[in-house]
Design goal:
The protein is mainly β and 175 residues long. It is 10% helix and 47% strand. The strands form 2 sheets. Strands 6, 7, 8, 9, 10, 11 and 12 form a 7-stranded antiparallel β-sheet that branches. The chain has a 5-stranded antiparallel β-sheet with strand order 1-5-4-3-2, with no helix packed on it. Strand 7 and strand 8 form a beta hairpin. The protein is globular. The chain starts with a helix and ends with a strand.
Amino acid sequence: MIGVKKAALAILAAALAYSADAQTPKASEYIGYRYEAPEILGKLQNGFTHRGGGLIGDINADPVLGVSTLEKGRTMMFWLEVSIARDEKGGVTAWEVKDVLEFPNVAAADRVLEFSDPSFECTRGRRVESELIGIGRLDRRRGIFTPRKLWRPNARTAKFETVSVQNVRCLYSEP
């Protein structure tokens, strides 16, 4: 009987760990959130630290789309956002969040693949897979990142879309 209870607890723990990977219901509270463009590593009013980001598609478009990386404690988030204000020189001064990926309680053994991180190069066959966000395991010694889940921002729909991890190989080289 004890063996059955241990097995049930192990399955429950695995399911909870898997479900905590991203796109949690809590993340939806940030959709529609508007904020002024902060300095890199600046704090937002909601307590998150803005770690930077990258633009998607035509950088001269108005509005322009981007992905920002945010952190608060052990939680990392990626916001797919649209510009809502510019200064007289055309620089973006404010953003509105359109979609969110949330990685709560990132385990020490896990690594989050950040959008446009130059340390990673992922391929599927001979084709480079770009603009990815993911979570998985990093083997620094071998320089390999094994993704468990992957997403890519879709500029047309302003949503993060799941990307199959099948046959994706990611190499890692520290900067």
